[in-house]
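Shipment paperwork, digital attachment
Item: protein structure file
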Amino acid sequence: MRNKLALIGGEEFSEDFQHVHASFAAFLRKKPRVAFLPTAAANDGSETVEHWCTLAREKLSALGANVDTLRVIDRESANDPHYAQQVADADWVYLGGGYAHVAFPILHGTKVMQALLSAKERGALISGASAGAMMMGTQAIVITPELLEDVGKYWETGAPPEWDPPVPPLIQGLGWLDSKIVAPHFDRPWFSRRWLDSDIFQTGSTLIGIDEYTALVALDMDGTWEVHGRGFVTLHRTREDFTRHGAGERVVL
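Attachment content:
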């Protein structure tokens, strides 16, 4: 089956999400080959990259997978033929979290990107967590330093009603979700619903808001998806026109 995609809203390597990863693995052969790419975290330093690679290896190996954590963190490593071959041969390619606007300049036009596209076309499962999910849309939100600083004030406590951060810029995404923008961590105070009233969203576009501990998973090629995990997926066509979907619900995008 082609176009097996999974969009994850965050907290992907927590124990509370492991059963969702197990449901992904059920799509695949026994002992699937996983290629984990920490590229979106490349600017966060080697310790952060190693942290995510270690978690990916521990959590996914526990499901019986053979996990390769590929340090694709710059243009040179993104053109490494060995890394590209591992991506091309994988049953499951996992795009880790960080920042979509960091990952794209590293991957654009490289051997690893071509291998990723080839893996998708032959039917590998492509999952993206947080920034990895954002990458799959038509466009991706740029988390500017100013927005990041602002969000940090309210991440744990929640934003006040008057919170009105500047509208962020967008960059071109992979385009695997036609006229869609993905907003992970949707249950956290980083995405201002006021942005839905701005020109950031073109007429006909849909925002896919995915809570933490939650995934939206493609089931088949007719556009049917299913919600997995403990949170919700919210589809915004405008600020007022939206639907909210919980675990087990099927969604047509």
